[in-house]
Structures are given as structure tokens and as C-alpha cells.
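User: Hey, my collaborator sent me this sequence without any context and asked if I could get a structure. I don't really work with proteins. Can you help?
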Amino acid sequence: MFFGKIKGTIDEWGFDVFNSTFESFIEIDKSKHMSIVNEANAKGKLIKGDEEGNPILVDPPEPTEKEKSEQRINELENFLRNTDWYAIRFADTEEPIPADIKTNRQAAREEISKLRELLNNNRTV
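Assistant: No problem. I've predicted the 3D structure and written it out in C-alpha cell form, which is a compact way to encode the shape of the chain:
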């Protein structure tokens, strides 16, 4: 197995291998490769090649504003899914939805709409 330093286009995820070439590379065995991959996954790091082609761990790039908005939408949608049972219970038993839950669900729906509108217009918050 080989690992190397890439020369060429590098994007936020690592490399554009179609427009890149290896500047230098080294051979690593499968156990070292798995060790590096496991460590990178455990620490939330990316694997890149240093000047000699040795694999090193680096911090991933900061999320873009678009990615942050999409992540926030996912968080809000999860909140709505996790509190849907209040609405179902109300429909089945007419037991009222607690005021704070009702208020927070409405705020979540409004924030989701705002974020989606901004994303659809290619703008960020």
C-alpha cells in the first residue's frame, strides 16, 4: 500500500486526484495504514502526506456557512421529530402540548424556513 504527498488541486475534502500527481510517496503496510485510519477517525482528523510522503493527521477545514446552515436545519428537524409525540398524543387524547414545547416547535419551524430560504437564494446567515 502506498501513501504520498499530492501535487495539484486540493479541495476541502482532500484531493482532486484527476488533476493531481504524486510528488513523493512511501510504501506502508496494511497494519500501519489501519492504525493511521483508526487514529484519524478517533480524533476527527484528516490524513495528508508530509513533504516526504509520510501520512500525517491534520485538522479538517472549518465548515462553510452553507454546511453550518444545513447542520442547523438537521438539528432543528431532529428536535421536531423528537417532540412529534406531543402532537400525536394531543390528537389522540386532547392532552395539551406543554407551552414551552409548543413555543420551541414553532420557533424551530420558523428558523428552518428562514434557513432554507437563505440557502435557496444562495445566501448564508
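In plain terms: The helical segments are 30-43, 65-93, 99-120. You can pass these C-alpha cells on to your collaborator as they are.
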